[in-house]
Amino acid sequence: MSTQPTQALPRTVTAAALAAALAMCGPSTAKADDGDGGKGGWHQDGLHLNAADNAKVDAFIADARDAERSISPQVRAAAWLTDAELVGFGNRLKSPDSLKRKVATSLRETPGRSVEAALATINDAVRYTLQWPDGSYTAGVAAASSHLASWGNDSIRWKNTWGNTYGYKAVNSAWRAPRSGMRFEIQFHTPASKWAQEETHKLYEEQRLPTTSPERKKELQEQQNAIFASVPVPEGADRLTAPGTLPRPVPAGAPANANG
């Protein structure tokens, strides 16, 4: 029976290696639109935030931008140490409008919820994607997540959908940074799973619109399922668990690797 790898990929993690990785990363220079700086309310696509709530979201955005400067070097070091490709690094900060849509939607769907409560559910104001080829994916995810945890980042969410019969395939994780306390997201992908995510994005966006009919939503879901069904499942990926937890057991009689 195969078990989840616990050892890092070829590079030995020493103080010198980590220092070299961080040196290669260089300082973070992420920039983000400041929105309207809390000077007024926010309105877009039928959603809105009043001036007070908008100012609180802008403050959260500023905190995320500050925290990213200390989070990114560690994520880049984890990628370097495990031979991962850091995909879409230039988009590591969620845009102000996207974040405000998420908060405004949460407030609309849950009457009485405070903006503070809505912000407390957001894990992806700072977000990253690490990608490995199929053959090194499982070891890469295990090693990268182990490094991040050993550097003081708390694993607060771990969603592994590789074993699901239908839909999205990847590991989506959320972490709390030790210095700032900011939550951040890391998605762990293969080239095929990342392609499928991008290929289905427009279908997903149409599916979740309130104006989309039930019949159309079903059709869109079937199209997404067909795309994700074509994604190969790397050996052991469906049993990957958060650092510090036991790997998922292989069900009796099941093959070591099954795609759906």
Give a summary of the structure in a few sentences.
Helix content is 43%, strand content 13%.
Question: How would you characterize the overall build of this protein?
Answer:
Helices cover about 45% and strands about 15% of the residues. The chain is an alpha+beta fold. It has a domain at about 35-190: Beta Polymerase, domain 2, CATH 3.30.460.10. It has a five-stranded mixed beta sheet with strand order 3-4-7-6-5. A two-stranded antiparallel sheet has the order 1-2. Strand 6 and strand 7 form a beta hairpin. The chain is globular and about 50 Å long. The protein starts with 14 loop residues before the first helix and ends in a 31-residue tail after the last helix. About 35% of the residues are buried. Residues about 1-10, about 30-40 and about 255-260 have low confidence and may be disordered.
List keywords for this structure.
260 residues, alpha+beta, globular, disordered N terminus, single chain, Beta Polymerase, domain 2
CATH topology of one domain: Beta Polymerase, domain 2
Q: Name the shape in a single word.
A: globular
Element pattern in H and E: HEEHEHHEHEEEHH
Sheet with the most strands, sense and barrel status? 5 strands, mixed
Q: What percentage of residues falls in helices of 4 or more residues? A: 40-55%
In the CATH hierarchy, the architecture of one domain is: 2-Layer Sandwich
Q: Mind telling me the C-alpha Rg?
A: 20 Å
The level-1 CATH class of one domain: Alpha Beta
Number of helices: 7
Given helix and strand content, the structural type is alpha+beta
